[in-house]
């Protein structure tokens, strides 16, 4: 497959060093603590399906939601080989801000900073309203995000990284711009992609707008949407977040609905 197609074609290579299995273990432990009888999981922003397939291997019935048709095509290809001994995964196309599925879930997860890709207050409000609608009473929400104190303490800086497999070599330059009054970081990714077999070279530019969050606004957001915080911790750690914690996790349960 040519690397000059959609972003989804080389997405997994760019993030192959991410420890998905350890993250699923971390999240599964949170589920066991707060929703031990959970059976159904909604994976928001599921991308190419790595988290979703891992949760399925844990025995959960998983629905993966993503707005990218190309990402979902890769996820379905992965599913054919990845979940031979687990539960099936139902992949659906939709936007986290306005999706509507036919049933509710025991657990909703939004991992790999999906929530931080909602830059405006209106985006966050819409997404959390949809999440609450799709959680069963007492259901569990788990999400991670960029944490404001760490972003402002250890500010994002330009980085160059090389990725390579048997087919392609990718050089990625990340150039961040901190928008301190908006709680945003604009990251420009300049990618040079070389196909090893043909020698063809292409250029791709991506712009990612990422919102960093502070605990008081998270707490307020949860409260407005009928969610009670049960955990707030540094990613893949038992530590409470501090100014060194770029990635933090929040777990919250849905309040009982009024009669």
Structure description:
- There is one protein chain.
- Strands 1, 2, 3, 4, 5, 6, 7, 8, 9, 10 and 11 form an eleven-stranded mixed β-sheet that branches.
- The chain has two domains: about 10-145 and about 210-255, Rossmann fold (3-Layer(aba) Sandwich); about 150-210, Single Sheet (N-terminal domain of TfIIb).
- The protein is an alpha/beta fold and about 260 residues long.
- The chain is built from seven helices and eleven strands.
- The longest helix is centred in the N-terminal third of the chain and has 15 residues, at about 20-35.
- The protein is about 30% helix and about 35% strand.
Which keywords apply here?
Rossmann fold; alpha/beta; 7 helices; 259 residues; N-terminal domain of TfIIb; 2 domains; 11 strands; eleven-stranded mixed β-sheet
Architecture blueprint of SSEs:
Layout: H1 8-14, H2 20-34, E1 40-44, H3 50-57, E2 61-66, H4 69-82, E3 89-93, E4 105-110, H5 121-133, E5 135-147, H6 148-153, E6 159-164, E7 168-179, E8 184-195, E9 201-213, H7 215-224, E10 227-234, E11 247-254
Parallel strand pairs: 1-2, 1-4, 2-3, 4-5, 5-9
Antiparallel strand pairs: 5-11, 6-7, 7-8, 8-9, 10-11
Helix pairs in contact: 2-3, 3-4
Describe what is shown at a glance.
The chain has seven helices and eleven strands. The protein has helices at residues 8-14, 20-34, 50-57, 69-82, 121-133, 148-153, 215-224, and strands at residues 40-44, 61-66, 89-93, 105-110, 135-147, 159-164, 168-179, 184-195, 201-213, 227-234, 247-254. Residues 1-6 have low confidence and may be disordered.
